[in-house]
Amino acid sequence: MVRDMAAILNLNTPAHVIHFWVIQITLANLLVIILMIVVFALAILLPFPRHDHDQGSSS
Amino acid sequence: MSATSPPARKSWTVTVREKAVAALPPETMFPDGQPAYMSSWIYVFGVLSLASLAILLLTGTILALKGPMWWHDDSIGHFFNSLHMWAVELFFFFMVIHLWGKYWMAAWRGGRARVWMTGAITFVIAIPCALTGYVSQQNFDAQWISTQAKDAMNAAGIGSFFNLMNFGQMYSWHILLFPVMVVGVVVAHVLLVRHHGIVPPFALDDQRFAAGGAPEPSAQAHATHAQPTGDGASGDGGIPASPAPSGTEREQ
Known about the structure:
The structure holds two protein chains of two kinds. By secondary structure, chain A is α+β, with helices and mostly antiparallel strands. Chain A is built from two helices and two strands; from the N terminus they run ββαα. The mean pLDDT of chain A is 81. In chain B, 62% of the residues lie in helices and 2% in strands. Chain B contains ten helices and two strands, in the order ααβααααααααβ. The longest helix of chain B has 30 residues, at 75-104.
């Protein structure tokens, strides 16, 4: 049961490091940065929900 | 004897109270309306950062009360340790997106330089606050980080009074000194936001200047959070009184 509830990815291993020119970054950190960029873009692009009573209060 | 007594000299408490109320009117602290231009997901990341910070403080307080062995020996302690770790992950995640959003909308416009600076200082202080947490874990990971990072402190000349291998010192920095600094600057940041109002988008700023308006004085910023009038004549964060351009209508 506990094993089933463990992390989907096995994090109990040495980090996978990516080397590119002078840049050296772990895969986990790179994924977090990419996710932040994606969330930032979605926050700009996705429409913000409006409540019904707001539409009536607009002048 | 004179019929009128000389005016009583104000005490410093009265002076402080009057200045505080003038700078931060109570009705602007918890407004019941907000500008229509805030209807965007990019405006939610500040409060998400605050929510993450609240969870950080709550879980950190419990961890501090139970002691540094609790999160190793007890499954509930391990659970709270995980909550604390994921809360700080989310805190930085949301804070970075908040930083990006405010950078690209030049949120220091309209006399909001102190708002921007307190936000940047919060970010800078939060980094060593988190790093001292990494070296306070009391595990092999903490030992590896502290023994590697101590050389950087020594090279910078601060190793004699900021010793990463001294658990007691790092723990004190992590659970008291840095959190007090972070919370203090965050409180100042939020109060400054309430004082100046949320920065409007560039398009609305251009409309205000085109109408000959002032560059968002504090009094107009206060109006941002005043009671909605519905006529566009006030309460639009320094936006010209009339005609109310599209997108400046208020929400409740």
